[in-house]
Amino acid sequence: MSTKVTTIATILTICSAGAYATAQGHDKGPLPGTHEVVVASGVTGGEVWGANYWPNVTLTGHDNKKYQFFDDLLKDKVVVIDFIYTTCPDACPLETAKLAEVAEVLGEQMGDDVFFYSISIDPKTDSVEVLAEYAKRYRAGKGWTFFTGDEEDIKLIRLKCGLMDLGGQQREDHSLDMLVGNQKTGRWMKQSAFENPYMLATIIGDWLHNYKQPRKNLLSYEKAPALQNMTKGESLFRTRCSACHVFGQGDGLTRQGPNLLGVTDRRERKWLERWLLEPDVMLAEKDPVAIEMFEAFNKVAMPNLRLSQLEISQLLDYMTKQSLVAELADRTASLTSAMQLKPIGSCCAKKSADSSNKQHEPSSGSAKNSDPNAGATASIKSKTAMGTTAMVSIGMGLIGLLTVALRRRN
Ligand code: HEC
């Protein structure tokens, strides 16, 4: 919810003429997405931040084609722009992995409604070949292009995007923000790579889309679930790690890194502590486990996330507990599907014909995500096999209780 407020607040403020437009937007402007932002008598945001604002410099994509930045890449499009360099040991892999997740959530919209541009800030090193290999490593598909070009041109684009800190000219200082916007309507906003991928996909694929089709069933704010008390470890994991890792079945999105189910059992605590502190150094020193994983995981290196000792121990606590919770959830899910494979007795056969299959698929939707109650509610609604329903509910209830107990203990 708060992101919606942030959206209104951040719309356009990143651009130099932003203050002017924001004042208009706040006073009587429509909700984000309802129609074009009109900043002065008859002038649209798209015209203000149009060909006169954006440089029309030439960039080369990892497909080895040349593009004019404004004409070919921005004009009339909904875009996400971020700046990376392929030898970056920390921030860029996280950013790129997050975009890969968001692209997967956006699915068919990629390359049709939405375009991702990852522009190299080290264009001398990042040739077309290097970028093509990087794109492949992160499984970049339709609608997502990596660009190289002239260093000065790229600096200008960064400046115009509001993503260049004039103080910090060092590559290493580059921000973890990305710019998302709809050129036609002139709505632009900064988003963080730490944001939840589903939230980002909603902002990019939905809010920015001029509401071509008005959305139905908008939920009231009052119905929003109460926020859970999140431990520091969980919050760190969600923002820094979940783009590349899950425990157990997870949410079905592809991740760049290994599944962390049981990792605190399979590795020594000391090894894990050092790994979280300096994975890049361990890889450089050719730690055998690190090398083996690096080869197995498409040569995507685990980034050094500059964690403190305290953060590392909070993360390890969270990972130990989460492994346990995920293992139980996976076991319950397989138990459930095993029971559902059994033929339904004649007493229930008729009823089952009209009940939707969807509820029986453990892999569909909320039953798999981190809210155990969602799965339990779905199972209660099931009209078939009451015994199974009861077992599932008990199983889910147990997981819920365990989660609460573990949280309390923290
Ligand atoms: C950009 C993706 C990415 C991010 C972000 C990331 N990791 Fe990783 N992680 C990997 C990859 C890839 C590997 C496999 C080793 C390699 O290729 O370097 C890995 C390996 C690991 C391992 C070892 C797994 C095993 O089986 O031994 C642990 C533990 C781990 N990561 C924890 C974390 C934690 C905790 C965070 C957040 C603080 C995190 N990772 C953030 C990509 C990532």
Overall description:
The protein is an alpha+beta fold and 410 residues long. Helix content is 47%, strand content 11%. It contains 17 helices and nine strands. The longest helix has 33 residues. It is globular and about 60 Å long. It binds heme C. The site of heme C has 28 residues, from helix 5, helix 9, helix 11, helix 12 and helix 13.
Topology:
Layout: H1 2-10, H2 18-28, E1 38-40, E2 43-44, H3 45-48, E3 58-61, E4 66-68, H4 69-74, E5 78-84, H5 91-106, E6 114-120, H6 128-137, E7 144-149, H7 151-161, E8 177-182, E9 187-192, H8 197-207, H9 232-241, H10 263-266, H11 269-277, H12 279-284, H13 288-296, H14 309-341, H15 346-354, H16 372-381, H17 386-409
Helix pairs in contact: 5-8, 9-14, 11-14, 14-17, 16-17
This protein binds heme C.
List key phrases describing it.
single chain; 410 residues; alpha+beta; Glutaredoxin; seven-stranded mixed β-sheet; two-stranded antiparallel ribbon; 17 helices; 47% helix; 11% strand; globular; binds heme C
Query: In terms of per-residue confidence, which ranges show pLDDT below 50 for 5 or more consecutive residues?
Result: 1-34, 213-217, 344-389
Q: From the coordinates shown, what is the CATH architecture of the domain at 2-207?
A: 3-Layer(aba) Sandwich
CATH topology of the domain at 2-207: Glutaredoxin
- Gross geometry: globular
How far apart are the termini? 27 Å
Top-tier CATH class of the domain at 2-207: Alpha Beta
Strand content: 5-15%
